[in-house]
From TrEMBL:
InterPro entries: Carb_kinase_PfkB-like, Carboh/pur_kinase_PfkB_CS, PfkB_dom, Ribokinase-like. Gene3D superfamilies: 3.40.1190.20. This is Carbohydrate kinase PfkB domain-containing protein. Signal peptide: none annotated. PROSITE patterns: PFKB_KINASES_2. Belongs to the carbohydrate kinase PfkB family. Residues 141-228, 256-373 form the Carbohydrate kinase PfkB domain. One of its GO terms (molecular function) is kinase activity. It holds the Pfam family PfkB. It comes from the Eukaryota. Keywords: Kinase, Transferase. It comes from Salvia splendens.
Length: 390
């Protein structure tokens, strides 16, 4: 049966990831070419006009960051310079937003007092950001190099830190950060997590921030494709959110149909891409999308997830856990998918099960980062599982 994309068009898409490996990708029936050498022309700093050039579906602030007391880069490193030593090749490259997260645990009364609606996303200005952080002064909160893309890349770097089932993974990211203290903090944190940050900071620019407020019920309130394909890399994109899809619908479909090998979406985003009603099941959307994109990953919260290949969909049950903080669950899930693909695994169910386990580990803790020890255990368990099936 011939299918065509639904018609109702990024210039900016949210996170783009390319995978390049010396091994073949059996799910995609092709062997990639030699990984691209570093750096690619598309990583020129001129491609990032400013650190505020980002999608506005998250709470962000574009104010000066000097008053936040953030100075976590090495003393010998200027916040205006790039790393001196980069690998000759990399296995994973991510392009997307670079945001510093301020996350903390609050109660419902805190949200009511500040007039914030639970579970929503809101754009805030400098004054509002300062007011919220001052109100959090008595709470326990922390700053982290965040953003959906970096969450996924850090988890992937930790999963691939050891040569289990293949070589250790070189992971890199390019994005827009300012020359302010937050920009230095962001790049330093990624470097310490073994993720190379390739973009020079924007002179006199400021780095975007996100405030993530999590209540005891685990609800959170949140304030280059052609070149990759020519290099033989697998191209993975995320659907961002429903409003972004609606604004750039035709662009999403152009990229999915012509460049994407992998797409990540939640159930609402998948239905929006398919022009399905809310009554349609996620499995139907997964099947439909997999006619156009070789590998489809659709998450459905605590109900589980689906992976789709060639018009078929496999249900992945959620891994049992006690939810503490759901922030970063989807990013962690994506890292599991990418890790499985980077290791050349052809069993989509096994890849989905790994992704579910990675997400459950992150959900059961506060914060969005997969721990080093947890990553090593997951990678070893996955390798053992794959060997036992072969």
């Amino acid at each position: 049966m011939a299918l065509s994309p639904p018609s109702p068009t990024l210039r900016k898409l949210s996170p783009f990831i390319s995978l390049s490996e010396s091994n073949s990708f059996p799910l995609f029936n092709r062997t990639p070419l030699r990984p691209p050498t570093c750096p690619l022309p598309i990583l020129s700093n001129s491609n990032f006009s400013s650190s505020t050039d980002a999608l506005l579906y998250v709470c962000r602030c574009v104010s000066e960051a000097g008053d936040l007391g953030i100075s976590d880069f090495d003393d010998h490193e200027s916040p205006h310079t790039l790393p001196h030593h980069l690998p000759d090749t990399w296995h994973v490259l991510g392009l997307g937003q670079a945001m510093v997260d301020f996350s903390g645990m609050v109660d419902d009364e805190f949200l009511d007092r500040l007039g914030l609606e639970k579970g929503t996303r809101k754009v805030v200005n400098h004054e509002e950001r300062g007011r919220i952080l001052r109100a959090m002064d008595g709470c326990s909160y922390k700053a982290a190099a965040g953003g959906s893309l970096s969450n996924t890349l850090v988890a992937l770097a930790r999963l691939g830190a050891q040569p289990i089932g293949g070589p250790s993974l070189n992971v890199s990211m390019a994005g827009s950060v300012g020359s302010d203290p937050l920009g230095g903090f962001y790049r330093s944190k990624l470097r310490r997590a073994n993720v190379n940050f390739l973009s020079a900071p924007v002179k006199d620019g400021t780095t975007g921030t996100v405030i993530v407020l999590t209540t005891p019920d685990a609800q959170r309130t949140m304030l280059a494709y052609q070149e990759a394909r020519k290099c033989g890399a697998l191209v993975a994109i995320t659907a961002s959110d429903v409003s972004c899809i609606e604004r750039h619908y035709d662009d999403f479909w152009d990229i999915m149909a012509n460049y994407a090998d992998v797409i990540f979406a939640n159930s609402d985003e998948a239905r929006t891409l398919c022009h399905f009603s809310s009554k349609e099941s996620p499995i139907s959307a997964t099947r439909y999308l997999s006619h156009f994109v070789p590998f489809v990953s659709v998450t459905d919260g605590h109900r589980g997830s689906y992976v789709g290949v060639k018009g078929e969909s496999v249900y992945i049950p959620p891994n049992p856990c006690v939810a503490v903080d759901t922030c970063g669950a989807g990013d962690a899930y994506a890292s599991g998918i990418l890790y499985g693909l980077s290791r050349g695994v052809s069993d989509s169910r096994s890849i989905g099960m790994l992704a579910s386990k990675v997400a459950s580990v992150v959900v059961s803790q506060q914060g969005t980062r997969l721990g080093v020890e947890d990553a090593a255990k997951l990678a070893e368990s996955f390798a053992f599982h794959c060997q036992s099936k072969s």
